[in-house]
What we know:
The chain has helices at 14-19, 21-31, 46-56, 67-72, 74-84, 102-121, 144-151, 163-168, 173-179, 212-221, 238-252; strands at residues 5-9, 35-38, 59-64, 88-91, 125-129, 138-139, 142-143, 158-162, 186-189, 191-194, 200-203, 226-229. It is 43% helix and 19% strand.
Amino acid sequence: MNRMGIGVQLYTLREDMAKDFKGTLRKVAELGYEGVEFAGYGGIPAEEMRDLLQSLGLKAIGSHVGLNNLRTNLEQEIAYLKTIGASYLVLPGIPGEERSDEESWKRIFALCGQVGEQAAEHGLVFGYHNHDFEFRTNIDGEYAFDALYSATAPEQVKVEMDIGWVQFAGFEPTDYIRKYSGRLPLVHLKDFRIDAEGKIDTVELGHGTIKLTDVIAAASEAGSEWLIVEQDRCANPPLESIETSINWLKTNYLSQF
């Protein structure tokens, strides 16, 4: 099995980050995480962020950047990522009003291709992070998830697969991981249960229903580079939750190396 990096999507820690951005990053490093994926920068200038990450021994994996910023602020977003040494620029989803019909989806596909080209010109990789709604709509006979990648070149748009949402949509994550082998550098590693109302309840790794060891093995075979822990909502304190998750990874994955 290939050794993939272990990161965390900082959206999981959004409440802690809002109170103490730098101190929360320090705690992430102390827990043993190797990289971070941003969802905002707390107003910290890029050079200062770069130096902070270096002092903590954390790698900047990349950042989730919303659709509006991709349209209006792409050059600045790219410049920030390059300064902090990140590799990935990721669209984290599509607002409902932007995907109301087939034509709006196709406009998004075209935009993703354009952003991917521009990112590549600067040495960055553009990717898309899914939820479950991409599997609820068909575009030209394909789920919107698949239609995006059919409409764009592999060198333009990579996959950041959230395996929790794939399973919640009713699909086997390992099947989709294998389908996008070679185009899947980033995997959002998530566990969940279904609550009494039929809604997804994200939980710490090893506390839900996803076959995580199978997912990790498939991701390794697919050439993925990073396993990124994300928990949309935490019943426990978020820092405690990501500690539980990395401890599961230390026992069930990192112990192999």
